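Notes on consecutive records. When two proteins share a document, each keeps its own sequence and its own token line. Never mix them. Below: protein one.
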Amino acid sequence: MLRERILITAKTYPTLSKKYGETVCTAGLREDGSWVRIYPIPFRRLDEKQQYEKYEWIEGDFVRNTSDHRYETLRPTDVNKIIVTGKMEPSNGWRERKALVLGKARVETKLTPLCEAIKNTPETAVSLAVFKPARLLGFDWESDEREWDKERMAEMRDKARQSEFDFAEADAWRLTFETINKLPYRFFYKFEDADKRVIRLQLLDWECGQLFWNCFRCTNKKLGLAEREKEALAKVKQRYWDEFSQKELCFFIGTLQQFHGYSPNPWNIIGVFYPPYVNQLELPGF
């Protein structure tokens, strides 16, 4: 068992899990810039004070998650004992955040070597990284299934009622089994890496999904569904493309367990890092 102090940098949109019900994959950096994936976390069932935000420091006891062959993955010994100890603010042009993310963590610029390493040595290859694109090419989306699979939902509700899930001690959740709304779209960034390879990766960031739903709820309810979603999608693109493409945009990328070592490209974008461009002369000592 290890006592870990981790700066949370990424949280993926919640997904259904046969073992845990609904869970979130979170990732972050230690003070030395090394990566940690925390899984599983029944995030929406945690007490409010434990629902950590991005760029908050958390502390807790963790052990290696032996059910996951990716070496960075740890699981908490007790999710209820994870504590938030502070926050890294974006002041001074994100100076402190950049010192850790771009200074101490390794920044990757080519995707092919990462994919080849996983193919050759999946158990020792990195599955989390900071990635700096050479050139941004676009941000787009595709339609997806609008509802969670009904048969799977029915099966999982039965398991919840019978307390067959791990983390099933939350009785209110166990009885209602209220899951998050499924996103009806999948979002993607298209970019070029340092090898001039054109890449398109799916964005799994929870904040992107939240933004879509928040914008959708703010649309005129007298409009049709398609028009309301069109407006919400435009707002998402405004932030993730119009705004972020003017920043020093980097991606937090991670692999999916079921594709790690099995797919030619198992990578997804699990979060975005978007500090403002700052004249380095204004940052002595950085």
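Protein two starts on the next line and is unrelated to protein one.
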Amino acid sequence: MTGTWINVAAVLAGSLVGLALRRTLPERVAGTVLQGVGLAVLLIGAQMSLETGNVLLPLFSLALGAAVGEALDLEAALERLGEGLQRRVARLDPGGRFTEAFVTPTLLFLVGPMAIMGAINDGLLGDSSLLVTKSLLDGITALALASTLGVGVVFSAIPVLLYQGAIALAAGTARALFTDPVVREMTATGGLLVIGIGINMLRLGSMRVGNLLPALAVVLVLARLVGR
């Protein structure tokens, strides 16, 4: 789990540097920085979504995943978790948007293929290189988001540890599930979720991306069935 710990450390370090910059960053500049990150997120999501070899798989996965996610209301659960953390640390960030600062990076850090394959390689082969690369990207993203949204970004390191750590520990079993076609379709589906995050960051809409997360599990199943 070395790579996961490096990833967590990068998120924490980037967040803390961002919080330090936030004290001196004019609000107008902070807003422009957030818009720039939002545009970059849209680009990343678009690149990821083009990985699909069968556009019907992400389509059906998002439809079925949305139904499951809305039934479970995962977005509300994430927001409640963020609000619960906010109540405990409100005095540290009285002017921040804590829930948004927690939910946005949490989704960004977890939906991509690097989180899955990096954790598998880390746990199964002891190869942390993919997660080290992800750590660099996540650290920069955490810095940018913390400088604009506040202390909530720090706490996104917790889901990173739990999610990637669980995959790394179960890597022996997980590796058999994540064949190249499966990873490709999960990447494409995750890319569409990342586009949704970018839309929210740019205030172009209000997508409940958290309720689309089950699509990643659905596409895993569909891609394996189609690949047989």
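For the record: Residues 75 and 210 are 4 Å apart (CA to CA).
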